[in-house]
Amino acid sequence: MTLTCDGQERHWIRAAVLDWAGTTVDFGSCAPAATFVEAFRRHGVAVTHAQARGPMGMAKRAHIAAIADEPTVAAGWAAAQGRGFAEPDIDAIYETFLPLQEACIDDFSGVIPGAVATLAWLRASGIRVGSSTGYTTAIMERVMRSAAEQGFEVEAMLCSSDFAQGRPAPWMIFENMRRLDVFPPSAVVTVDDTVVGIEAARNAGTWAVGISATGNLVGLGQADFENLPDRERGERVSTAKRRLLEAGAHLVIESIAGLPGAIQEIESGRVAMEG
Prior knowledge:
Elements: E1 2-3, E2 9-10, E3 15-18, H1 30-41, H2 49-53, H3 60-68, H4 71-81, H5 87-104, H6 115-124, E4 128-133, H7 137-149, E5 158-159, H8 171-180, E6 188-192, H9 195-204, E7 207-211, H10 222-227, H11 230-247, E8 251-253, H12 259-268
């Protein structure tokens, strides 16, 4: 950041593209994982929460296909259905998944602590705010309405269902940049709690900031997270941080509340974009 002649701070980071579940709402990204488990159960196949969380951040149909590709899930499907998993089965599970997700989404739309204050800081700093998600447009209309009631509103929102390819493809980030009229990619920070979200940020050439504690890789609601013994909580957060860094994150913060500090660190020159 620099100071102009009027003494105001001006940032060379000019846009932030924020993820939703696990990053700005739904502490622990609990809604999608539980719904995937239930959708597969209704088709006679047991899926663990860890398996359901593995592809998190992808478009939901691709997410279903990735779960089904897990060896134990594939074996369970063959045992339950008497055949291997096929393309029409993605549609069948997706059709089961959507109403389940819609039925519970209002219960998992709470804004994560620090999100509203961070949004205010971004706006005061002249940094434009876009967003992307693996949710469908219909679901996001409800999430965004709930978030707005809590004081959290973004300028742009893109759903993976609007694109032929979701994350880790960079298209949602690029469209955010177009709508916000911000370029080059080095002027943009992408914030996400999933591995594929970080990969999408790197594929787009933006700064990639990972979210560890409140996101999918720890995968606990706020009360359960806070009730963990200190040592276990620290270990889980450290493991999430390591996985996000391995995926290519330039920085990892525990929650969205740390984004102002991350942007300031990027702008200080202490963080290299490549390497």
